[in-house]
């Protein structure tokens, strides 16, 4: 099941990126960081991009059909979020929040696939923690493009928060860790989970406190460092289940 969901997560994120590249190709060509993307740069045609998207969705369907009926319906319902996310930056300063709702749908789906239903006391705080985490790392990521975003007229939390970004993402960081703690408590996870959660808290605090939001290179470094935050939480969940 872990392998199945790992592949599913890659396909969901890949499909989201493909849709984003297709819909944003006219914007991407005007932004320094994104102008070399395959569709924007002309390496792939929009039709080729659509064919690749169809291939990704077909593989995703194959994975979804391995799950129970409840999970199939829940998984299929995420497609509305996946397809609409790329449009959000045109209408709201909170596309990062919408991304959080989209990319963390797997928290709901994973629980449903194992349990056959959702247990709100455990799974909703887990989902909320993922949304808040996304708001932290993707706001940092968005600071790379803030000058270009202003020029082309798209929106982001980086532009919305401005000079108050660190205060905002600190709040989301606290909400993320608190929600993870609540989810672990309600799911009756063992003590090792909380040790790893404490380490992950330190990693997240380090990101927020030290990131230079005026440096594209440092924003990218901090964004990439979230792999360690995710690895710590995953390890904590795993050991918390193995060791009471």
UniProtKB/TrEMBL annotation:
The keyword Transmembrane helix applies. GO terms for biological process: isoprenoid biosynthetic process; ubiquinone biosynthetic process. It holds the Pfam family UbiA. The chain crosses the membrane at residues 41-63, 93-114, 191-211, 223-243. It is a multi-pass membrane protein. Catalyzes the prenylation of para-hydroxybenzoate (PHB) with an all-trans polyprenyl group. Mediates the second step in the final reaction sequence of coenzyme Q (CoQ) biosynthesis, which is the condensation of the polyisoprenoid side chain with PHB, generating the first membrane-bound Q intermediate. GO terms for molecular function: 4-hydroxybenzoate geranyltransferase activity; 4-hydroxybenzoate polyprenyltransferase activity. Its main location: membrane. The lineage of its organism: Eukaryota, Viridiplantae, Streptophyta, Embryophyta, Tracheophyta. InterPro entries: HB_polyprenyltransferase-like, Prenyltransferase, UbiA_prenyltransferase, UbiA_prenylTrfase_CS, UbiA_sf. This is 4-hydroxybenzoate polyprenyltransferase, mitochondrial. Its cofactor is Mg(2+). Belongs to the UbiA prenyltransferase family. Keywords: Isoprene biosynthesis, Membrane, Mitochondrion, Mitochondrion inner membrane, Transferase, Transmembrane, Transmembrane helix, Ubiquinone biosynthesis. It is found in: Membrane; Mitochondrion inner membrane.
């Amino acid at each position: 099941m872990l392998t199945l969901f790992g592949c599913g997560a890659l396909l969901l994120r890949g499909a989201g990126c493909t849709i984003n590249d297709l819909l944003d190709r006219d914007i991407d060509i005007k932004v320094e960081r994104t102008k070399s993307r395959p569709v924007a740069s002309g390496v792939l045609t929009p039709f080729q991009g659509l064919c690749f998207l169809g291939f990704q969705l077909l593989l995703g369907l194959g994975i979804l059909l391995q799950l129970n009926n409840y999970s199939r319906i829940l998984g299929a319902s995420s497609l509305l979020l996946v397809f609409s996310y790329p449009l959000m930056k045109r209408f709201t300063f909170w596309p990062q929040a919408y991304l959080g709702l989209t990319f963390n749908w797997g928290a709901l789906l994973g629980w449903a696939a194992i349990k056959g239903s959702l247990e709100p006391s455990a799974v909703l705080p887990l989902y909320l923690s993922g949304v808040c985490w996304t708001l932290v790392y993707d706001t940092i990521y968005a600071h790379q493009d803030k000058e270009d975003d202003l020029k082309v007229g798209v929106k982001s939390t980086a532009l919305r928060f401005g000079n108050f970004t660190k205060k905002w993402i600190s709040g989301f960081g606290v909400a993320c860790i608190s929600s993870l703690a609540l989810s672990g408590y309600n799911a009756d996870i063992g003590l090792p989970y909380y040790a790893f959660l404490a380490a992950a808290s330190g990693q997240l605090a380090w990101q927020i406190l030290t990131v230079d939001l005026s440096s594209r290179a440092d924003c990218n470094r901090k964004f990439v460092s979230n792999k360690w935050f995710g690895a710590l939480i995953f390890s904590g969940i795993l050991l918390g289940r193995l060791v009471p």
